[in-house]
Amino acid sequence: MSAAAERFFVRHNALPTMPEVASRLLKSFDDDNVGISQIAALIEKDAALTAKVLRLANTAHYSPAHQIATVIDAAHALGLETLRNLAMAACLSGAFPKVRGLDRATFWRHSVATANYARILARMLGADETTTDTAYLAGLMLRTGQLLMALDEPHLVADVETHAAEPGSRFSLEEHRFGCTHADVTASLAAHWHFPQAMVEAFKDANTPLEIRPFSLIAAVLHVAEVLADAAEHHDEPVHALKVAVPELIEHLHLDLDLLAAKIAATGDPAAEVEQMLH
Q1: Which pLDDT tens digit goes with each residue over 71-83?
Q2: Does residue 186 contact residue 92 with C-beta atoms inside 8 Å?
Q3: What are the pLDDT digits (tens) for 111-130?
Q4: How many CB atoms lie within 10 A of CB 89?
Q5: Per-residue buried b or exposed e for 182-211, using 16+ beta carbons within 10 Å of the residue's own CB
Q6: Among residues 237, 244, 205, which one has the least CA distance to residue 221?
Q7: Quick one: 66 exposed, middle or buried, by C-beta within 10 A (0-12, 13-18, 19+)?
Q8: How far is the C-alpha of 51 from the C-alpha of 94, rounded, in Å?
Q9: Are 257 and 249 in contact (CB under 8 A)?
Q10: What is the distance between the alpha carbons of residues 271 and 115, in angstroms, rounded to a whole number?
């Protein structure tokens, strides 16, 4: 991990505590023997998490055919992957303190949008279901390093956000001010939290995915997903934003931009579940 990123972990109590349920959910990604009932039972051990997951599962975004009253009901209605992703989102959003320099609701809207766009992109680019799930979780996590940066230097982080009007510009603005990016700090956080090494590397490589050898599909997906989330936040046209911000990357990925535009339009609000996630 880079020294510039690691400095945000020097302060006493700087490292957020990863919720126990989130830690066990994370381990389940690598266990093919884990089924719906085990995931549901794990979530039900935490009453606050259960309430949050049920609120999320009942939102129009997931179009439940009936009122979902239990976690196992949610599991059968939504499927294992969606349930686990919802639970991870609920856990992680509660693991970080409110910080000066960043609006909490805006921040998590952007993070959830990045996660959903990362999942869309991974599927479009032929990733298997495990990689697609990893892309969602990594997209959700990608900016969390910025929360730790804001704990130390809230005014500088606020300055970055003030100037980050162009989709994709946050990376270079942070590099100039901090000597590292939010993705670098997230990589350090993921390493401290014992995330899978492949995900740690994806965060580390997300800043400049075209410079990495061997090429990392997940790192590229994360970078493109953040540009799309930026565009959504600023109400910019998504395909135009990609052509301006990352033309070489979309060419390298052979991304079908017409199909992507159609999938984005079909998704609607990419962060519709955030209100339920934060309360």
Answers
A1: 888 888 888 888 8
A2: no
A3: 999 999 999 999 999 998 87
A4: 26
A5: bbbbbbbbbbbbebbeebbbbbbbbbebbe
A6: 205
A7: exposed
A8: 13
A9: no
A10: 9
